[in-house]
């Protein structure tokens, strides 16, 4: 208590000055209309700014839940499209319409969130929060809103690990959207934004900006999923094939949500092909 009294005595002049300044300020604001308006206007501006900042913070935390919901809704819409296509195919088959071929027969899309992701390694991997109990199995294709992501490698009950395009262990069977020429897309282990389109012969007409999509010639991805666009290409005088660099459709640095493709025809498809390979004659 003694120290507190000594403190006030020591700084009594400062506290007196502060009291007089506050009293003068209140008298001016109370008795002068202009100063009162200025003060109220400043206070309202500060309060509005605080409300804006707090609103932005709240919206930021709500954005995560909104993205999860949006990813689930996109997967539901794709599943509904597939169901409608399948139903249309059954109706046309009943009518003996042999010209109709379903674009995405018996596909299902499972939404998932990325919980671990690397882009700066030679062999990158992605972990998602869905697994066996959600219907995910090794070998399934994985896409995002912008295009192809990769292929499921291993699965546990609750989680799955994906090999993305950013890993030289896999290649994505792709083709030019404009002319249907086919070639595998492979990553060279350098920049996460780019990969290479391989085995494109010199007689093929290539342009910068050409769209590359999945070919649909495997059971992993349906036809037409974006893979990337031609960024640059070269062809030496004695080269049989182009050197083509693609800018990938998916930005793996900002990737948060994906959809896993379940092809219900895959077991029959692969079993038939394996049988054919085992019995070439």
Report on the structure:
By secondary structure, this protein is α+β, with helices and mostly antiparallel strands. It has a domain at 106-264: Thrombin, subunit H (Beta Barrel). It is built from 4 helices and 12 strands. The protein has helices at residues 2-10, 12-31, 33-94, 266-278; strands at 107-117, 126-128, 141-143, 148-155, 160-164, 172-176, 182-186, 194-197, 211-214, 226-234, 243-248, 257-263. It has a 6-stranded antiparallel beta barrel. Helix 2 (12-31) packs across helix 3. Residues 98-104 have low confidence and may be disordered.
Q: CATH superfamily of the domain at 106-264, please?
A: Rod shape-determining protein MreC, domain 1
Based on secondary structure, the structural category is alpha+beta
Largest sheet: 6 strands, antiparallel, barrel
Remind me, CATH topology of the domain at 106-264?
A: Thrombin, subunit H
The fraction of residues assigned to DSSP E strands is 15-25%
**What's the CATH architecture of the domain at 106-264?**
Beta Barrel
Spatial extent as radius of gyration: 31 Å
Helix fraction bin: 25-40%
Distance between the termini: 104 Å
- Number of contiguous helices: 4
Q: Averaging pLDDT over every residue, what do you get? A: 80
The run of helices and strands is HHHEEEEEEEEEEEEH
Record field, number of beta strands: 12
**What order do the strands of the largest sheet run in, or round the barrel if closed?**
1-2-5-4-3-12
Q: What is the CATH domain class of the domain at 106-264?
A: Mainly Beta
Shape: elongated
**Poorly predicted runs of 5 or more residues:** 98-104
